[in-house]
Specification:
It comes from Pedobacter nutrimenti. This is IPT/TIG domain-containing protein. InterPro entries: 6-blade_b-propeller_TolB-like, Ig-like_fold, Ig_E-set, IPT_dom. The protein is mainly beta. Helix content is 4%, strand content 51%. It has 6 domains: 78 residues, Immunoglobulin-like, CATH 2.60.40; 78 residues, Immunoglobulins (Immunoglobulin-like, Sandwich); 78 residues, Sandwich (Immunoglobulin-like); 78 residues, Immunoglobulins (Immunoglobulin-like, Sandwich); 73 residues, Immunoglobulin-like (Sandwich); 291 residues, TolB, C-terminal domain (Neuraminidase, 6 Propeller), CATH 2.120.10. A hairpin with a 2-residue loop joins strand 7 and strand 8.
């Protein structure tokens, strides 16, 4: 082949390809305008004299006035202005009642009937609003010879507030709905533009926090998001989506509890209250591993009782929720989620939970979930080996003996070196951990017991405190003396007469004399000084760590009862049903909680600025703010009985004392129910720590027995000491 010919051919081919690409590009650049369909959505007024301006709204009108013609019952009309969505016409001279017709770029559309008459509704302001709003109706012919003008909105009669020949003011009726404004007068009728009835029917959810996505349902909303101004108690929210009947908005960062409001064209509608709640808290997830079909239970606080307001995911995969309350969510594991974090979202408030393993082996429950060494524990779950020796079980790292095994149940014995921590199972090459810790918890006798004489509390009870070294001091009211029990349980006489002699004498240790009564009590300060209420001597006595007894306060009339102290060193002594003495560091006394019904033989407590006491009925706890003096009688409890719950829904029977643990909890010796109860001071939730048949038995919280519990004390490790009166014992309750 000739090389020059070949080269020429290539040049020609390149030029052809260039033009082909250019033509193709030009075709791509050419955009075809999509014509909006011609449609009339509204027109107003529908009546008037010649020269009246008539507004037509809709779509597809274009913007060329030369392309638009109009007629009123066949008579040509002037076109005043044209936009793509609105045309303004002037009703022609010599026209007659009939249809308005439009022709736009050769396409004709029928607008509606126009009546030639004096009565005409030409404009309304505002054109939107809620029930109760006032609108101004401008027009002509409103004067009447036969009766006042009537106004209707969407066919529903409105109250006319004021009237003249060319102006009416009307009040929007309830549930008017969206529709034309119509005026009737002298047997004639005229309609104007459509009034948008603005209403909020409901919002969902009603609770949440910043970032919560809220759907607002109602009517008359602007379909352009920017046309709707939504605020939560005055703080503007982002409108994410808008339609005529609903809005989707995002609660602002500064959201606070209060009404949600919507403003459109300066017309405000107030909706329901949106309540800000804390971010949800996950307390337990059970199981933390398991197969498809296993039921997962999530416990915590601030969940939604409305099921679809909660979302749970594992490893990023959403799960279907079976049931939901404010504190418990259940679901069935689908399997195949993979291992990963459990994440809970309640109304878009997200909290991350523990890791979950997608496997056969899992622990659902420990029963009991507390105990001491030797406690028999049943573990329920899935994927266990039926051979006991093929399952390795540890309590906080210490191996336990497996007594029996089945696929879903293991029975094990808590080991001797037991401490609080998670239970772990290894079986069939997999490892699972318990959803909650197994707590080394239970009841042991610290001193005394039935038939013993080393202490004496069975008749008149007493008081009890613990110092920083773990020494327990016991006030024996019947014997008018104070015993000291070392951490090892060694009992010695600390102050008062060895022979139980009563009197009123200061001095060193056993030289001192007291005259205690059934309601005498004791408190200890941070330096280890004891303050005891001396019932018979109507005084408070002070005892140093060295056993030196002195008189701290005197002339405490109405008999002295149980005693407590605040963080500033003020001592509080209950009177006989007549309030409380408050005593400063110099022994100067004032009276508080006067006129209140105080049970003087029930141990009180001070937490922060609040003084708490047991009401004389023994079924409820009351408090007084020490700064403001405000009394709250029914703080917790109220009715006689036994029931856990929140605040006044909880029930007690014969409370003998209360004790703060310094960690936001109040313990209650519920004597009538033979129970130790716990109150969360922030939430007022009452739960039961220990409830037993009356008897005497050491063991786990589920197994132990007590009989007639009264005063309490707490040590630095959070252990509770109680006076067990009928058993003449001090019992130590381990809680962690």
């Amino acid at each position: 082949m000739n090389l020059s010919n070949t080269s020429g051919f290539r040049n020609i081919l390149g030029i052809l390809l260039f033009f082909l690409v250019l033509v193709t590009a030009c075709k791509k650049d050419k955009t075809e305008t999509i014509k909006e369909p011609l449609k009339v959505t509204d027109y107003f007024p529908n009546s008037g004299n010649q020269g009246t301006l008539v507004t037509i709204q809709g779509t597809g009108f274009g913007n060329r006035i030369s392309e638009v013609t109009a007629s009123f019952s066949g008579t040509s009309a002037d076109v005043v202005s044209v936009t793509p969505k609105e045309i303004v016409l002037r009703s022609p001279k010599g026209g007659s009642t009939g249809d308005i017709s439009l022709k736009i770029s050769g396409e004709q559309v029928l607008v509606g009937k126009y009546t030639y008459q004096e009565l005409s509704v030409q404009s309304i302001s505002p054109a939107n609003g809620s029930a109760g709003a006032h609108i101004q109706i401008t027009g002509a012919g409103f004067g009447s010879t036969s009766g006042p003008a009537q106004v209707f909105i969407n066919g529903k009669q409105a109250l006319v507030v004021s009237a003249s020949d060319n102006l009416l003011v009307a009040e929007v009726p309830e549930a008017a709905g969206t529709g034309p404004v119509t005026v009737k007068v002298n047997g004639k009728e005229a309609s104007g533009q459509t009034f948008k009835f603005q209403s909020i029917t409901d919002i969902k959810p009603l609770t949440g926090g910043k970032g919560t996505k809220v759907r607002i349902n109602g009517s008359g909303f602007d379909e352009v998001a920017a046309g709707n101004y939504v605020d939560f108690n005055g703080k503007q929210a982002l409108v994410q989506e808008a339609a005529a009947d609903h809005l989707i908005v995002i609660a602002p960062d500064e959201v606070a509890t209060g009404p949600l409001s919507l403003t459109i064209n300066n017309q405000k509608t107030t909706g329901p209250v949106f309540t800000v709640v804390p971010v949800p808290v996950i307390q337990t997830v059970s199981p933390l591993s398991g197969p498809a079909g296993a039921v997962m239970t999530i416990t915590g606080t601030t969940f939604s009782a409305i099921k679809d307001e909660n979302r749970v995911s594992i490893n990023g995969k959403d799960l279907s929720i079976t049931s939901a309350t404010a504190t418990v969510i259940t679901l069935t594991l689908p399997g195949g989620t993979g291992s990963g974090k459990v994440v809970l979202s309640v109304n878009d408030q997200v909290v991350q939970g523990p890791d979950f393993k997608d496997q056969n082996l899992g622990i659902v429950k420990l029963s009991p979930d507390n105990g001491l060494a030797g406690t028999e524990v049943t573990i329920t779950g899935s994927g266990f080996n039926a051979s006991p020796s093929a399952n390795t079980v540890t309590f906080n790292g210490v191996a336990a003996v497996v007594k029996s095994a089945a696929e879903n149940t293991l029975v094990v014995v808590a080991p001797e070196q037991l401490s609080t921590g998670q239970v772990k199972i290894t079986s069939n090459g997999q490892t699972a951990v318990s959803p909650t810790s197994f707590n080394r918890a239970g009841v042991l006798t610290f001193a005394g017991g039935p038939g013993t004489t080393e202490i004496s509390v069975s008749r008149f009870g007493g008081g009890i405190v613990v110092d920083k070294q773990g020494n327990v001091y016991l006030q024996e009211n019947e014997k008018n003396r104070i015993k000291k029990i070392s951490p090892a349980g060694v009992v010695s006489l600390f102050a008062g007469s060895p022979s139980s002699q009563s009197g009123n004498r200061n001095g060193q240790g056993t030289d001192a004399l007291f005259n205690f009564g059934p309601s005498s009590g004791m408190v200890i300060d941070p330096q280890g000084n004891l303050f005891v209420s001396d019932y018979g001597n109507q005084s408070v006595r002070k005892i140093t760590p060295q056993g030196v007894v002195s008189t701290f306060a005197v002339n405490l009339t109405n008999f002295t009862g149980k005693i407590t102290m605040d963080q500033d060193g003020f001592v509080y002594v209950q009177k006989f049903y007549l309030g409380v003495w408050k005593i400063d560091k110099d022994g100067v006394k004032t009276s508080l909680a006067q006129g209140t019904s105080v049970r003087e033989d029930a141990q009180p407590a001070v937490v922060g600025n609040d003084f708490y006491w047991v009401d004389a009925e023994g079924t409820l706890l009351s408090k007084q703010n020490l700064v403001t003096g405000t009394n709250t009688r029914y703080w917790v409890g109220g009715n006689y009985g036994y029931q856990d719950g929140i605040g006044t829904r909880a029930m007690f029977s014969g409370i003998k004392g209360i004790l703060s643990d310094g960690n936001g909890n109040m313990y209650v010796s519920d004597n009538g129910n033979n129970a130790l109860r716990k109150v969360n001071i922030s939430t007022l939730e009452v739960t039961t720590v220990l409830k037993s048949a009356r008897g005497y038995k050491d063991g786990s919280l589920a197994q132990a027995q007590v009989n007639n519990i009264a005063d309490m004390a707490v040590d630095k490790d959070g252990n509770i000491y109680i006076l067990d009166l009928e058993n003449n014992a001090i019992r130590k309750i381990f809680l962690r």
